[in-house]
């Protein structure tokens, strides 16, 4: 089996609410696959990412990440699992403002031995990723919050990729970028994802981006819980 | 350690608030350390002054009063005892030496004490150190005065200077013994005890200069001229003395002698053991010390609460930070630990700063305290229990930091990876 992510009969409702946010029969992402997950706001995108990231535990169903059933793991086990196998890019404000750029990129290696081992020399790996993401060397020692939004997103991408996680989760990472920089960002991200051999689950409401991915999935189609009224 | 480095970088990012917090805690620690240090120094200072004395004997009075008055010049002098009583004490078996003291006159506010050469020979201070002369010699003439280190320093006196003594105590001397100037014969080395602030004259001179003063003021035309006095000095051996310091050949004899002197029938006497009397004094001052300590502890608690307040208020603005850390693999307990580490660094900074400030203040104020209060303060290494208190404060700091830490822990679990602003 080569699915990095396999979801089976997943149901999830936030505590205190009856109506489920997620009700997904089946969804999977193959190793190295780049999947575009499209959905309007409120369609449960963020919740799905939280479930995949093992930050919330579904009431029923299975989420298999890299062959492990997340529901069988303890809380600490899930945390370790996330640290080892997932890279994450948010919409914006991805970086710890008080760390320099390089330290931000090496952050996952501080929390995961697996990622640190794969990265080898974390500093060197960070430098390599940063230059691959087209960030000049003069920026590497700067405080993260002195960078432009576009630069920060590329630093975040470098961080998500350090130590070659099996799956990169990207939550609207381009929404704060203009069209030019968005395309450039995607080019660089794809390139590095391929080099790292990571699968990419990219969530966005901007369907125009979808054409560049291996597969486009409409979240409302697989999520029976439907759009919030 | 990764988390500690992260905590450090995070603190650097908020250095102004953090420095203020460290300073607040530092001040509170400084207060605590100073209170403790001064308390110890004051006690040691008192013990320093009576280190070689086995008994102090005076007229019937409260032991603490006798001790404070004779050795430290605190309070008004009490009654006197007769010369016969002194002889009685000297005649006791086991008595090695006696130092008679006459108290009452002053010079520019400092005490003038009449005594004998035995004082310079037998008096001991601190670790049973004898008195040393910095300049000159002890009594050679009836109208000699040997002065303490601070008296010489403050008034600029040196050997050979002539000074006048005042009748009675106090700063403003209305009645001076003008007819009998005294010559500074010796200056004592500093001792860090009240000796530094005293002037010592021969006991017989005390008697001589008071001839004609029987009514309390000088009767014009009365008194002796100097040569006459020198000739008849032994006749003017004072009939009454204020107190006697007694040294014994065997310390074990002190209890028996104390009891027998307290029961002495010819005259009501009080004999006190300085060490035990100081213990009584500490029991009296203990309440005040307790209050001081309690205040210092409360201030420390205030400082720690201030730190928690700062950590709690930053918690909201750091919600995003926590989510970022969590998304990048930090476990919830690690985020809680981050806050505890931050608190630990702040408290540690406060402890170091506080101890430094306290020691700095003690070093800076030392000369002034010695000058004004005759209090010898010094920087001494904290005792084990004091280290324990400081360590305890550190632990309490970590403990109170658990409040924001637990809040952060719960919040990160609830927030998950969603970064909401």
UniProtKB/TrEMBL annotation, chain A:
Pfam families (alphabetical): ABC_tran
Membrane-crossing residue ranges in chain numbering: none
Domain ABC transporter per the UniProt entry, residue ranges: 5-229
Keyword ATP-binding: yes
PROSITE patterns given in the database record: ABC_TRANSPORTER_2
Source organism of the structure: Wenzhouxiangella sediminis
GO annotations of cellular component type: plasma membrane
MF terms (GO), sorted A to Z: ATP binding; ATP hydrolysis activity; transmembrane transporter activity
Keywords of the record: ATP-binding, Nucleotide-binding, Transport
Protein name: ABC transporter ATP-binding protein
UniProtKB/TrEMBL annotation, chain B:
Annotated localization: Cell membrane
InterPro entries, per database record: ABC-4/HrtB_transporter, ABC3_permease_C, MacB_PCD
Residues of the MacB-like periplasmic core domain: 19-219
Top-level lineage group: Bacteria
Keyword Membrane found: yes
Transmembrane segments: 12-35, 290-315, 336-365, 385-409
Official protein name in the record: ABC transporter permease
């Amino acid at each position: 089996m080569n699915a990095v992510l396999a979801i089976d009969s997943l149901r999830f409702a936030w505590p205190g609410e009856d109506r489920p946010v997620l009700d997904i029969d089946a969804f999977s992402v193959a190793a190295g696959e780049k999947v575009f997950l499209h959905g309007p706001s409120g369609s449960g995108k963020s919740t799905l990412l939280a479930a995949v990231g093992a930050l919330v535990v579904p009431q029923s169903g299975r989420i298999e990440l890299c062959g492990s059933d997340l529901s069988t793991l303890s809380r600490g086990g899930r945390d370790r699992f996330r640290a080892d196998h997932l890279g994450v890019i948010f919409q914006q404000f991805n970086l710890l403002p008080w760390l320099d750029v390089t330290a931000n990129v090496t952050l996952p290696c501080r929390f995961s031995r697996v990622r640190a081992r794969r990265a080898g020399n974390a500093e060197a790996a960070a430098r390599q990723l940063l230059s691959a993401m087209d960030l000049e060397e003069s920026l590497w020692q700067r405080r993260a919050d002195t960078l432009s939004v576009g630069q920060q997103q590329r630093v975040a991408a470098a961080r998500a990729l350090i130590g070659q996680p099996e799956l990169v989760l990207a939550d609207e990472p381009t929404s704060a970028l203009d069209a030019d920089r968005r395309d450039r960002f995607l080019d660089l991200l794809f390139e590095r994802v391929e080099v790292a051999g990571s699968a990419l689950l990219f969530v966005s409401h901007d369907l125009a981006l979808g054409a560049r991915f291996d597969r486009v999935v409409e979240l409302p189609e697989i999520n029976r819980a439907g759009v919030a009224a | 350690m990764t988390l500690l480095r992260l905590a450090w970088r995070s603190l650097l990012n908020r250095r102004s608030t953090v420095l203020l917090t460290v300073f607040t805690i530092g001040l509170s620690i400084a207060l605590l350390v100073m209170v403790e240090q001064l308390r110890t120094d004051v006690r040691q200072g008192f013990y320093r002054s009576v280190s070689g004395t086995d008994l102090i004997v005076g007229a019937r009075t409260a032991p603490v009063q006798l001790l404070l008055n004779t050795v430290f010049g605190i309070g008004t002098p009490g009654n006197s005892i007769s010369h016969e009583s002194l002889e009685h004490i000297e005649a006791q078996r086991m008595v090695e030496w006696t130092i008679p003291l006459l108290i009452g006159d002053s010079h520019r506010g400092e005490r003038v004490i009449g005594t004998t050469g035995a004082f310079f020979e037998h008096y001991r201070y601190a670790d049973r150190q004898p008195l040393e002369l910095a300049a000159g010699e002890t009594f050679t003439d009836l109208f000699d005065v040997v002065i303490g280190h601070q008296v010489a320093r403050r008034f600029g006196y040196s050997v050979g200077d002539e000074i006048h003594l005042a009748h009675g105590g106090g700063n403003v001397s209305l009645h001076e013994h003008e007819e009998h100037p005294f010559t500074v014969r010796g200056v004592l080395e500093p001792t860090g005890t009240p000796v530094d602030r005293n002037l010592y004259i021969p006991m017989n001179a005390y008697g001589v200069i008071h001839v004609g003063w029987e009514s309390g003021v000088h009767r014009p035309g009365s008194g002796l001229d100097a040569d006459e006095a020198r000739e008849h000095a032994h006749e003017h051996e004072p009939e009454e003395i204020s107190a006697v310091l007694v040294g014994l050949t065997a310390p074990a004899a002190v209890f028996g002698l104390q009891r027998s002197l307290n029961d002495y029938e010819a005259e009501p006497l009080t004999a006190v053991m300085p060490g035990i009397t100081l213990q009584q004094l500490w029991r009296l001052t203990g309440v005040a010390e307790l209050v001081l300590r309690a205040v210092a502890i409360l201030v420390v608690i205030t400082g720690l609460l201030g730190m928690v307040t700062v950590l709690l208020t930053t918690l909201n603005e750091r919600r995003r930070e926590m989510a970022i850390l969590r998304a990048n693999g930090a476990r919830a307990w690690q985020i809680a630990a981050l806050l505890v580490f931050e608190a630990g660094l702040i408290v540690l900074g406060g402890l170091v700063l506080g101890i430094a400030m306290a020691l700095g203040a003690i070093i800076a104020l030392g000369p002034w305290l010695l000058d004004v209060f005759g209090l010898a303060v010094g920087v001494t290494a904290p005792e084990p229990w004091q280290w324990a208190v400081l360590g305890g404060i550190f632990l309490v700091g970590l403990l109170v930091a658990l409040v924001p830490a637990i809040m952060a822990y719960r919040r990160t679990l609830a927030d998950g990876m969603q970064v909401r602003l």
